[in-house]
Amino acid sequence: IRTFGTLTTTGGTGVGFLHAVGGGTTTVTGATSITNPGGIGISIASSTTAVTFASTTINKGSSAGTGLSIAGSSGTTSFSNLAVTTSNGTGILASTSPLSVGGTGSTVAATGGPALDLTTVNLGGGATFLTASSTNSTGKGMNLDTLTGPLTMNGGAIGTPAGIAFDLNAGAADVTYTGAISNVANALLID
User: Fold this and answer.
1) Which residue in 2, 71, 74, 3 sits closest to 42, CA to CA?
2) Cα–Cα distance measured from residue 102 to residue 137, given in angstroms and rounded to the nearest whole number
3) Nearest to 141 by CA among 175, 109, 186
4) What is the pLDDT of residues 27-45, one digit of tens each?
5) Digit-coded pLDDT (tens) for 162-181
6) Which secondary structure element, helix H or strand E, spans residue 19, and what is its range?
7) How far apart are CA 1 and CA 23, in angstroms?
8) What does 45-80 look like in DSSP terms, one character per residue?
């Protein structure tokens, strides 16, 4: 078991925070701030234990890559509040994992990638974002595939992705997006 009061990293060439197989139950009781790591902002990979964060900010405003990545984990990754910004990559990328985002003030703003790219993700009692935005994604603007638990995004904008602007597939989740959606000519807006 690992407990941190606060967690702050700035710069560097690798991942800002990595929790992988054998990492053990981890809790950050205070604020987490990850700024411009060379790799992924926060990476949770094949974790079998809970990883719990309080208010968390991931800012990749001047470094390329994904803000938050969760893959192949059976333990729940939780945030009391989450703010993710990317300048050239996906905001939140998660697959085959449980994810909990508390409150109603979380935000994600991605440039050059989708705001959310979630596949086979269990959101438990649901996740609410104040805004979720993607600008000039090289692929989709938003990709939601086989979600469990409601997902509400109360604002934001998806603008001119190269692929489908808002792609929602399978799953039983109620999904609400009240932001603006636009795309280039002859590209799918919603699928």
Assistant:
1) 71
2) 26
3) 109
4) 999 999 999 999 999 999 9
5) 999 999 998 878 999 999 99
6) strand 17-19
7) 8
8) ES--S-EEEEEEEEEETTS-S-SEEEES-SSPEEEE
